[in-house]
Amino acid sequence: MRAQAAIDGAREQITAIFENRVTTQRTPGSFFAMFGPDGIVFEQGFGETVLGEGVVPHRDTVFRIASCTKSFTCTMLLILRDRGQLNLDAPITDFVPAFRALSPAAAPVTPTVRMLMTMSAGFVTDNPWGDRMEEMTRAELNDFVAVGVSYIATPGTGFEYSNLGYALLGEVIAEVTGLSYVDAVSTEILTPLGLTSTRFDRDPSPDTETALGYRLANGAWAEQPITGPGMFSAMGGLFSTATDIVRWSLWLARALDPEDSSDGPLSSASRRELQQIQRVIPKNPLKEAVYAEPTAHGYGYGLFIDEGTSKIVSHSGGYPGYSAHMRWHAPSGLGIVAFENGTFASVAVPATQALQGALNSYGDLSVPAAAWPETLAARDTFDGLVRNWDTPTADAVAAVNLALDVPYGERIAAIATAVAKVGPLTGAPLTEVERKLGDTPAMTNWTIEGERGRITCHILMSPELPPRVQTFKLETESH
């Protein structure tokens, strides 16, 4: 299995990365689980779940996953959207009437549900503040938004990470379902997917091992209090285990496979929608070194997405005493879940390094799309037309625009000019140009050899059924 081989190839590197987290006092305890399309492939824990007890974190140790909760919140919103119960473009005041729009002053704009989901409501980034707001009551939230919210941009015009926005989305879910946010997510998502160790409060069972959270203060670890459910739980209230979050990650990731047939509370199409860039995030030059290739970076629905020659989906979580990260690479199916019990530990850093190490070991990560059979048949036809033009043959495969865009007389003359530059043609069969990642099934390129050079030909098929040739181009190159 390629996933196993890739992870095995980076095993020593990955182990050292996470072991170093504890030895350098980044965190009291650290755990990671690397997975492939079929589940966990490599896992390891370091340090302690509770200082002084000597228990090493494992796949069923409970950690707070903090903002990884946001993907659950957006899944619930899309469930309601798909049932026809929710319009994502409805203003937040439809669900939280107390909300007061203040920005811009000249013509206030009320953020919509979609703006809140995509972090484009214009609110101030609020990670430290939001982390302390979980237990806010409904009355307190209503009083807060009735006064007004600070804006840094006009709603709908840019990205700014907001926990407050997700607290409001929790109220959307409660208003639509008639249940509390916690009960709605538990009933509609956690139970159907069998995420039995994922919940919004600390499991009181003595059989459940929960990692305590710590903050490094003056060289010593200080235990941090655990907050309970409240109005801000929709932004980061979940407790979970690596076992469950790997299962959750795979359920989302499998939807990116065109042949996915997995079921669950949300369709594959809507799960793919979660994992598409909905709001572009301007690049931070200080962070560009993390990415090995040019990427488009943005936010989907409760998930960060990086698109380049391949696709990576991720989200981090940070709470007082905890750090979490989930991350998967769509083409290979490789991914990682990592948890630590230290404030500001930023486990996303070693998790990203670990996954990249496995991807480096994996080899060819992305395979260009194969050409349609109709594309290849049209290629063969036009290869023959370059060698010996025949208008009825061209008409048989040409889209209606081909002769209108460039009349056949001009095309025949252009072919003759090209042959004169590189010819005479050798009679050797065509050579298919190696396909690139950007090539779609509707296009292909090939070369025809002449004694003094070669002709490179390109065709693009039309969207009709059956597809026909809408574009034909050629250029010459001398030996």
Automatic annotation (TrEMBL):
A Pfam family that the UniProt record links to this protein: Beta-lactamase
Protein origin, superkingdom: Bacteria
Every Beta-lactamase-related domain range: 15-348
InterPro entries noted in UniProt: AmpC-like, Beta-lactam-related, Beta-lactam/transpept-like
SUPFAM superfamilies per UniProt: beta-lactamase/transpeptidase-like
Family matches, as PANTHER family: BETA-LACTAMASE-RELATED DOMAIN-CONTAINING PROTEIN, D-ALANYL-D-ALANINE-CARBOXYPEPTIDASE/ENDOPEPTIDASE AMPH
Protein name per UniProt: CubicO group peptidase (Beta-lactamase class C family)
